[in-house]
Specification:
It is a single chain. The strands form four sheets. Strands 1, 3, 4, 5, 10, 11 and 12 form a seven-stranded antiparallel sheet that branches. The chain has a four-stranded antiparallel sheet with strand order 2-13-14-15, covered by helices on one side. It has a two-stranded antiparallel sheet with strand order 6-9. The protein has six helices and 15 strands.
Length: 425
């Protein structure tokens, strides 16, 4: 009389009921939504279900033999192939910065055939004697050892303005890149390709932050998720303890493995065995896999990184005034010209020809640098007048000079006549 297969089947169902229920629950037939499936482009739907059951039954929490894994950190790439998703070909796994995804041609900003912006009537203000004197008095007062006498008693000889301009072009760009990511699978729904094709990288809608402000956002690409066994622990959820090599015990730190103390008495810490319990794994010989957090399975998905960056080109006209140009970075100027558009035109006919040339170079440079790799959302160019006046004055029969610069009327006085009023003991 042949034995009925039903008892064995019932034993299998009882043993794996939790995983089979989870698998069955993840298949939502009414809405045609399927979960917990391994995405392999050459397999049929039935193949996906079979693959999932195979992975689930393999990840039952069994201890991996010592010869299969011997490290606490992943030492090899995943054993499962990375799926190719249309629109994301070449996307790699890891934290290498992602694969750049240039925008389609219909998203490349074009300046169009409009006219150049109207130019401003450039008016160049100059600092007054009163403002120059007050600036030097404040400067001397800010220095603990500077006497204020020269600033208060000086006699102006000459105020020479240097019309110094700062040109700035800001190009606000959006770039996108993709990267495969993994996370321990904790039973959540798997948004696989069976729900539909993955949207193309530049079809995914994201909220644009404040213009001309750097920002990064990360989006989980829909319909790219798949479930795979953990490559680090071979679906076991546990790995070999490297401290005790899976034995659960290490050499006793008191008797150094001899079993006896220095006075030949038996070691009480290890009861004379020479070995004590491994603290790293609590004597089990195995530890929870850090890659899958002990779950045995990993959820793979493509992450889209959207990066907004304000790219700045800056040029300060050199008037050969003898003033250290680096100090201009500390101050602001008077905005004489502001032009903000999707794509700006170069400035023309500016009183200082070097500013017009700088604008021409900047616009061409940014277009060459960003148009093919990023989406240009907005451009803004400004011209600031940075007030700079060289003041020459007489004090006690000698000539001195200093500079007043920026809207803040800061002072640069390298040869201030009375720098120290303190006695050094």
């Amino acid at each position: 009389m042949s034995t009925s297969p039903l008892p064995s089947f019932y034993m299998f169902i009882t043993k794996h009921s939790d995983r089979l229920f989870s698998f069955a629950f993840s298949i939502r037939v009414s809405s045609q939504r399927y979960g917990a499936v391994d995405q392999m482009s050459h397999a049929s739907a039935e193949g996906y279900f079979a693959t999932d059951i195979q992975i689930s039954s393999a990840c039952t929490g069994a201890i991996v033999p010592d010869h299969m894994t011997n490290g606490e950190e992943p030492s090899a790439p995943p054993a499962y192939p990375i799926d190719e998703i249309s629109g994301y070909e070449g996307t790699a796994l890891g934290d290498g910065g992602g694969k750049g995804l240039p925008p389609p041609s219909n998203l490349v900003t074009d300046r169009g055939g409009g006219p150049s912006p109207a130019q401003t009537d450039w008016n160049i203000p100059a600092v007054s004697e009163d403002a120059a004197k007050e600036a030097l008095i404040q400067y001397a007062a800010s220095k603990c050892c500077y006497s204020s006498a020269p600033a208060k008693e000086m006699v102006f000889q000459n105020l020479q303005p240097f019309n110094t301009y700062r040109y700035r072009l800001e190009t606000f760009t959006e770039s996108r890149s993709s990267e495969w990511k993994t996370t321990p699978y904790r039973g959540e729904f798997v948004d696989s390709f069976l729900l539909g094709p993955a949207p193309l990288p530049w079809n995914i809608q994201v909220e644009v932050p404040t213009m001309f402000t750097d920002n990064i956002t990360r989006v989980k690409v829909p319909h790219t998720s798949s479930l795979k066994g953990c490559h680090n622990c071979r679906c076991a959820g546990t790995i070999h303890c490297t401290k005790c090599h899976g034995r659960g015990k290490v050499q006793c730190w008191i008797c150094h493995g001899s079993g006896n103390r220095l006075n030949e008495d038996r070691c009480t810490h290890c009861s004379g065995s020479g070995r004590s319990r491994c603290n790293s794994c609590s004597g089990s010989g195995h530890k929870t896999c850090i890659t899958c957090a002990g779950k045995g399975q990993l959820l793979y998905y493509i992450e889209l990184q959207v990066k907004w960056k304000n790219n700045i080109f800056e040029y300060v006209a050199d008037q050969r005034s003898g003033f250290p140009a680096d100090l201009f970075k500390e101050v602001t100027g008077q905005k004489m010209f502001v032009d903000e558009q999707s794509m700006v035109y170069p400035v023309v006919n500016f009183p200082d020809p070097s500013i017009s040339q700088a604008s021409q170079n900047a616009v061409v440079q940014h277009h060459t640098q960003f148009a093919s790799t990023s989406r240009v959302l907005r451009q803004r160019q400004t011209i600031e007048l940075i007030p700079l006046t060289k003041v020459e004055y007489d004090w006690q029969g000698k000539w001195y000079s200093y500079y007043v610069y920026g809207d803040e009327n800061r002072v640069y006085a390298e040869n201030y006549p009375k720098k120290c009023c303190c006695l050094v003991m």
